Amino acid sequence: EHMVRESHQDRELGTRPREIPSFHSHFTTLTITREPRSKHRAKDGAVGTSQGCATTTVTTMLFEPDRDGQTPQVVVLVGAPGMGKTTMVRKVMVEWGEGTLHTQFDFVFCIDCKAIDLPMEASVADLVSQCCPGLQVPAGKILDDQKKILFIFDGFEALEFSLVQPKAELSSDPREVKPLELTLMSLLKKTLLPKASLLITVRPVALGSLRQCLKGEYYMEILGFSAARRKEYFHRYFENPNKADMAFRFAKGNEILYSLCVIPAMSWTTCTVLEQELCGKKNLLECSKTTTGMIMFYLSQLLKHRDRDNPQVLQQFLLHLCSLAAEGIWKHKVLFEEKEIKDCGLDQPGLLPFFLNERIPREGEDHESVYAFTHLHLQEFFAAMFYVLEDDGEMDSSLGKLEKDVNKLLESYNKSRKDLNVTVRFLFGLVSQKSIEYMDKTIGCRISPRAREELLEWLQGRHRGLSHPGQALKVSEMDTFHFLFEMNEKSFTESALGHFTDLDLQETKLTLYDQMALSFCIQHWAGLGCITLKGCSFQWQDPEAEPDASVPCSGISGAGGRPGALVVWRREELPCPIHLLCRALRRRDSALQVLRLQWCQLSESCCADLAALLAEHPGLARLELADSSLGDSGVHLLCEGLRTPGCRLRILR
């Protein structure tokens, strides 16, 4: 009863003020890949979904036997922020509590790593009691039958202690009181309750350190919403089917917004924004094509009914809010105590609920309420805003004094703090001329353009440092293209990339959003002479394409609960994987001479676009397609391009 009650509370995105929807009415199935331990080859902290990996829509397969009949005891659920890891945890708990799934467990205990509130020393028995206050059964008795217990660690990356602990220090007695990190590590390393099951959710950036703690684990990666599921989500969110259709058509018509809606959090944000816009209106305003623009639009909707008679109140509130957000991002902090809210001057009932969710203490807890931003991405947005929002002086907060030092933020990101990526991306988006004007006119916030020069110098300097003396200056970091795409300014992009001649990416999984960012930058990169994309994969079909569950396949439970159905993709409907790249290069003023696409697993479907590029490009002299499966018909298409009078190619490999 306790777990069902807890899991029905939506802590990630909050609920609309007018209703508290049931969990099942709003839950939309996510696309998840399951990867057995033997096939897991994490690279740079990310799980790669190889072609041999079964892609299916599951929630029932978390602890079911694999093809070899092995039942996993440890399942790691990997996903980027906002992909739905916590929602999946809540669904597991709801299904278990209702007796519909996971019935092999008598007890499920969920540890929220982002809000862990335990003494410095504790036993597993203490942990169990803390997870479920008022437990009638003695904790010791519960732990006797290990196979019937599931421990869930939600948000593993938030644990801030060392994962390297001496084996001799680990515990094997569930009643033994040890330092908290040793007790948790003993559970992970299976010296404690070795027959109990574990479900761990983690962001890709923390996967490398987690793997050192585990043995025999199974990995599942959340890929987000398929195209069909996105449509389903919109219809579940809106009560009125006409509004749902209108909102979905709007989102699908915006290429970038629709592709970002693969992330459940962005689908939620989009629906929330469009729901506000549809109130009393028959048409939808045109949305910006960047994440920053979408959130600014969202912010304007939240604030348009606020008191405009005294804009200074809102300006001061946002200054304090941004300070709190930035302090939190620097310190990996997402929960804020009531005292911090008051000390920051944020205890304003007319504004606070629009930005922060309050978490009421559970019965028996003696601490006060805690607060969190309605979503991590919103906290990151306001953290970026802290650096560019105009104010009369340095801000003081209850968490300490934080300087508005843009260079410190950028250098910290460059050296070690890769978790600052989204904040830096929003920083670029906020200082675009369009954003500055929009924030001033629509929200009444003054954004300073002073950071633009610092951002430009940083981008130019970071890649100069990566290029070797005597070699061509090259850009080899994908995030650079994300940053420029977020700003979406032709002149700034031209200045940032003007000193570089080469683009070099190695073994990168290029999502549709990555390709859009690349395409935008290539179009405004006058001096680009050489593109090298070795071992890169161009992701269009998963999860963007419509699934076709009509092909039977034994052993896999597919979409819609149909036994023996495997989710596959209609090949004839897929666009050419390198379509955006070729389209961006077909410019009469392009300086490109070398295009290397080795080990990119290109197929016949790419040849028509390549042939068109060969026929139209004014200077492409070298094309490398090593280790591709073009087929005879694909090579025939290439030859058509080679025969055209406009082809300038000299070397084909």
From TrEMBL:
Keywords: ATP-binding, Cytoplasm, Inflammasome, Inflammatory response, Nucleotide-binding, Repeat, Ubl conjugation
Predominant localisation class: other
Domain NACHT: from-to ranges: 73-276
One Gene Ontology term of the molecular function aspect: ATP binding
Recorded superkingdom: Eukaryota
SUPFAM superfamilies registered for this protein in UniProt: P-loop containing nucleoside triphosphate hydrolases, RNI-like
One example of a Gene Ontology biological process annotation: inflammatory response
GO CC annotations on file: cytosol
This protein's name: NLRP3 protein
Species of origin: Leucopsar rothschildi
Gene designation: Nlrp3
